[in-house]
């Protein structure tokens, strides 16, 4: 897979992470908890099922989506904390159901791109960790959390 293919994967990861500001705003406005264990279970279950249908080992993609979910919650917490400190919130957040639908579509696209990369022989190995970490762009996410996403990405593999 070309650099363009890898860029597409990280574009999708970044798009997914950038929805978290709107989700944080919606949850703040509606006074909802950031953590939604049942939603997280649905995301993981759906990702693993879709991965299995594509030919990716489900247990290898689970930690990747867990890392994305953890990063998403962290981002939401940081936005809400910043807003509380400044006594502001983002105005007019999108509807949560609409955002979740868009995230489901992003997840499916991400799994498809990962599958295409893997069947093309793309290796997400440790020699490219540094450059992959730099491809994750979110101001609320530390290098450590980016590394966790990349490490989980490197463990994804096709079913035998």
TrEMBL record:
Coiled coil ranges: 27-54
GO molecular function, one term: chorismate mutase activity
Transmembrane segments: none
Enzyme nomenclature, EC number: 5.4.99.5
Domain Chorismate mutase: 1-80
Pathway(s) where this gene product acts: Metabolic intermediate biosynthesis; prephenate biosynthesis; prephenate from chorismate: step 1/1
GO terms, biological process: chorismate metabolic process; salicylic acid biosynthetic process
Keywords assigned by UniProt, alphabetized: Coiled coil, Isomerase, Signal
SUPFAM superfamilies recorded: Chorismate mutase II
Keyword Isomerase: yes
Protein's UniProt name: chorismate mutase
Biological source species: Hamiltonella defensa subsp. Acyrthosiphon pisum (strain 5AT)
């Amino acid at each position: 897979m070309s650099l363009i293919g890898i860029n597409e994967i990280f574009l999708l990861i970044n798009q997914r992470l950038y929805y978290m500001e709107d989700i944080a705003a919606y949850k703040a406005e509606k006074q909802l908890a950031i953590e939604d264990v049942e939603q997280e279970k649905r995301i993981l279950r759906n990702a693993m099922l879709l991965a299995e249908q594509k030919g990716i080992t489900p247990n290898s993609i689970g930690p990747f989506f867990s890392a994305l979910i953890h990063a998403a919650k962290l981002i939401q917490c940081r936005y809400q904390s910043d807003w509380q400190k400044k006594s502001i919130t983002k105005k007019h957040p999108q509807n949560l159901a609409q955002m979740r639908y868009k995230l489901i579509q992003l997840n499916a696209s991400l799994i498809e791109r990962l599958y295409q990369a893997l069947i093309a022989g793309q290796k997400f190995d440790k020699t490219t960790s540094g450059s992959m970490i730099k491809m994750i762009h979110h101001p609320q996410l530390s290098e450590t959390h980016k590394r966790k996403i990349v490490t989980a990405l490197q463990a994804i593999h096709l079913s035998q």
